[in-house]
Write a structure and sequence with these properties.
Blueprint lengths: L3 E5 L5 E2 L14 E5 L2 E12 L5 E10 L4 E6 L9 E7 L2 E6 L3
Parallel strand pairs: 6-8
Antiparallel strand pairs: 1-2, 1-3, 4-5, 4-7, 5-6, 7-8
The structure holds zinc ion (ZN).
Protein name: Rubredoxin
Length: 100
Amino acid sequence: MSPSVFRCVQCDHRVFPARFLCPKCHGDEFEAQTCASGVVTELTRSAISGEEPSVYMLATVTSDAGPVLIARVLDEAVQRGDKVALALRDGGIYADPVRE
Ligand SMILES: [Zn+2]
């Protein structure tokens, strides 16, 4: 399953996450649109402290639909400029490498 971005019915502008009003035309009607892929523009390494400290990577992904999404990356080989597939898993968004 892929995450969704939201397309303004009035002006076609796409937003993520969902908003009450379109930032461009102030329209209030949106249509969910599946967003399956994008390109990594930034990578951030984050650390979780606690009983089991761990490090994970977050990618800033410019989706093919337009809006920028933040996704978790499990594959250490993913780099800036890579095309990734976006997937919804365990309530989060993940960016998986696309092998071409
Ligand atoms: Zn609009």
